[in-house]
Amino acid sequence: MGVFSGLEGSLEKYIEGFFKGKYKGHVEPAEIAKRLAREMRDHRRVSVNKIYVPNLYKVHLSSPEYDQISTLVSALTRELQDYVQQKAIEKRYTLTGPPAVSFDNDSQRSAGSIEIESGFSETPPEDDRAVAEKTPLEQTQKFRLNKDNLAMNQTQDTSGRLRIEDGPDRGKCFNLGKETLVLGRRAGCDIVFKDSSVSRRHAQIEWHRGQYTITDLGSTNGTKVNGVKVTARVLEPGDKLALGTTICAFKVE
What we know:
Blueprint: H1 11-18, H2 29-42, E1 45-46, E2 51-53, E3 56-62, H3 63-69, H4 73-91, E4 94-95, E5 100-106, E6 115-119, E7 160-166, E8 173-175, E9 181-184, E10 191-192, E11 203-208, E12 211-216, E13 223-225, E14 228-230, E15 232-234, E16 240-243, E17 246-252
Parallel strand pairs: 2-4, 3-5, 9-10
Antiparallel strand pairs: 1-2, 3-6, 7-8, 7-17, 9-11, 11-12, 12-15, 13-14, 13-16, 16-17
Helix pairs in contact: 1-2, 2-4
């Protein structure tokens, strides 16, 4: 993960300090961060239990601005993606997938101006009381639960567990409950692993409408379910999860 791990609040000031002296464009990285936060806020979807926000962001810059960030684009992309993740946590928003920030070279745009498009890589659950705003990016990717996944139709009394079957934490069991849990190596995670192949903030598991979903948080080694690398996946009893070299069994009680 990037250098935002463990930080709360004052994120814009931090990103400004991180790139100070490295970037000389008209549009500062801190301004891009603020615009991302505004885009997140303006396109949130409020459901009964959660506030969903976009996880896809495309930043349109003029050609001169784009040329000036070209040597820093990889670092800037990583830091802004980490910023989006931390801002969502700070505001208690729910991202519908790992954050992705990209840059577009817009030759028709005047220097110093920014435009940001946002969208959802997965469609937030529909709800009669949800507030929905659609964006251009949202039209390109939709997430639909396969009917087979609906077999895990659990009651509100049902709870999930993770049992570590292989790795440094072998033998440990974790109750999942109904709260969103972050899994990783960092001490501040809800479920902490000793495995060095697990990222500091590796994945999250959340409960919604009787189902548990695991979402990779942009981890270095990825998240696998039953041997298949996933971005997000509804879990079913008996699924085997791989985070780095740590293998977990998902059980329902």
